C-alpha cells in the first residue's frame, strides 16, 4: 500500500526555521512529481511547492525566497526547508504524490505553528 508520512512540524517563533520531511513507501516516488500543500484555519488548501521527477521546482509567490523543496530519491523522501517563517505560514502541511494522469496520494499532515 502507498503511504506518505510527514514529520518535522512544530512550534517556532517568527523568523525561525523548520524542515519538513515526507517519506514515501509502496511506490517508486522517484518517477513521480511530489509537493507540499497547506491549509490554514478558515482557508482553502493551497499549493506551496512542487518538484518533478527531474528536479524542477515551483513555488507559490508568498514563499519564494524563503522555502526550498528538494528530494532524495535514494531515500524515497521529499523535504521542505522553511526559513524566515511568518505568522501567515501557520497551517497544516500535507505531502502530495501525483501519479499520472491525475491521481493524488496524500499524507496525514503535520502542524506548523508560527508565533510572535
Can you tell me about this structure?
- The protein has no helices and 11 strands.
- With 116 residues, the chain is mainly beta.
- Strand 5 and strand 6 (57-59) form a beta hairpin.
- The protein starts with a strand and ends with a strand.
- It has strands spanning 3-7, 10-13, 18-25, 33-39, 46-51, 57-59, 67-72, 77-82, 91-99, 103-106, 110-115.
- The strands form 2 sheets. Strands 2, 4, 5, 6, 9, 10 and 11 form a 7-stranded mixed beta sheet that branches. It has a 4-stranded antiparallel beta sheet with strand order 1-3-8-7, with no helix packed on it.
Straight-line N-to-C gap: 41 Å
Please tally the helical runs, counting DSSP H or I stretches of 4 or more residues: 0
Flag low-confidence runs.
none
What is the succession of H and E elements? EEEEEEEEEEE
- The total beta strand count reads 11
As a percent range, the share of strand residues is over 45%
- Shape type: globular
The proportion of residues forming helix, as a percent range, comes to under 10%
Structural class: mainly beta
Mean pLDDT comes to 95
What Rg do the Cα atoms give? 13 Å
The biggest sheet amounts to: 7 strands, mixed
Amino acid at each position: 500500500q502507498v503511504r506518505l508520512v510527514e514529520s518535522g512540524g512544530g512550534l517556532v517563533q517568527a523568523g525561525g526555521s523548520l524542515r519538513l520531511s515526507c517519506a514515501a513507501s509502496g511506490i517508486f516516488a522517484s518517477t513521480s512529481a511530489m509537493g507540499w500543500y497547506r491549509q490554514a484555519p478558515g482557508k482553502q488548501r493551497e499549493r506551496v511547492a512542487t518538484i518533478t521527477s527531474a528536479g524542477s521546482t515551483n513555488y507559490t509567490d508568498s514563499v519564494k525566497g524563503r522555502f526550498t523543496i528538494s528530494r532524495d530519491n535514494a531515500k524515497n523522501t521529499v523535504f521542505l526547508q522553511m526559513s524566515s517563517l511568518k505568522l501567515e505560514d501557520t497551517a497544516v502541511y500535507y505531502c502530495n504524490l501525483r501519479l499520472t494522469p491525475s491521481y493524488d496520494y496524500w499524507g496525514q499532515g503535520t502542524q506548523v505553528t508560527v508565533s510572535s
